[in-house]
Write a structure and sequence with these properties.
- The structure is a single chain.
- By secondary structure, this protein is α/β, with parallel strands linked by helices.
- The chain has 2 domains: 2-131, Response regulator (Rossmann fold, 3-Layer(aba) Sandwich); 133-231, Winged helix-like DNA-binding domain superfamily/Winged helix DNA-binding domain (Arc Repressor Mutant, subunit A).
- Helices cover 45% and strands 24% of the residues.
- The protein contains 8 helices and 12 strands.
- Strand 11 and strand 12 form a beta hairpin.
- Helix 2 runs parallel beside helix 3.
- The two termini are 37 Å apart.
């Protein structure tokens, strides 16, 4: 079920959109607002999945409403429906935080297609964010920011590219023995080079220090064979 806040001062259009989305298309719960001021109040109360709003309305226009919403909510997708589609108006909408425009007049099917597309994009972004973030004991490895976050202490450590890549590799192969030559071949150009092997030891030492505040985590050396990230849950 998609919870939609539809902000529009045209009573006939409100009725058409609500009826079509809820009764003909289905899987919608539509809450109407007659202007930006009312839309702001309903947004706070109902927490909709998506907001579709007109721009030119009495008491509070769409620009001001979106600007107020974006002060605390950067996630909820917002679409403007308007005949005001000059470059100046479009730019103003994107500046306050709207995600897309639908030109009036539009059909309910067209609106449904736009809503589906923007929610699909949001879901994809969340999936990418999830893939770029790995939970490890009391830590979170954020690949997009190259940081290791200690969730309990509320602090983060910026990692070098190789530190991040190594830790990511260990997380993906947690509790599994990884041979030294496999690690060296993957992250160093000359895996049989003495200096490459020594460099690996230095990086492992640094990673151990980064993880030392969580006693359930251990990068264990299996002498003569390889390394293993052990998670004692």
């Amino acid at each position: 079920m998609i919870k939609l806040l539809f902000v529009e001062d045209d009573e006939s259009l409100r009725y058409i959109v609500k009826s079509a989305l809820e009764e003909l298309i289905g899987d919608y719960e539509v809450v109407n607002a007659v202007n930006g001021k009312e839309g702001l109040l309903i947004w706070k109360e109902h927490h909709p999945d998506v907001i579709v709003s007109d721009i030119d309305m009495p008491l509070m226009d769409g620009f001001e409403m979106v600007e107020r919403i974006r002060e605390t909510d950067e996630e909820t997708p917002i679409l403007f429906t308007s005949a005001l589609t000059s470059p100046k108006d479009v730019k103003a909408g994107y500046q306050v935080g709207v995600n897309n425009y639908i030109k009036k007049p539009f059909s309910p099917d067209e609106l449904h297609a736009h809503i589906g597309a923007i929610l699909k994009m949001k879901k994809g972004a969340k999936m990418r964010e999830k893939v770029n973030s790995y939970k490890l004991g009391r830590y979170t490895l954020d690949l997009s920011q190259a940081t290791l976050i200690n969730n309990e202490a509320g602090k983060s450590q910026t990692l070098t590219q190789r530190q991040m890549q190594l830790l990511h590799f260990f997380i993906e192969n947690k509790n599994t023995l990884i041979k030294r030559n496999v690690i060296l071949e993957r992250f160093w150009e000359k895996e049989d080079d003495f200096f490459a092997s020594r460099s690996l030891d230095v990086f492992i030492s640094k990673l151990r220090k980064l993880l030392e505040e969580d006693p359930t985590l251990e990068i264990r050396t299996i002498k003569g064979v390889g390394l293993m990230l052990v998670i004692n849950e």
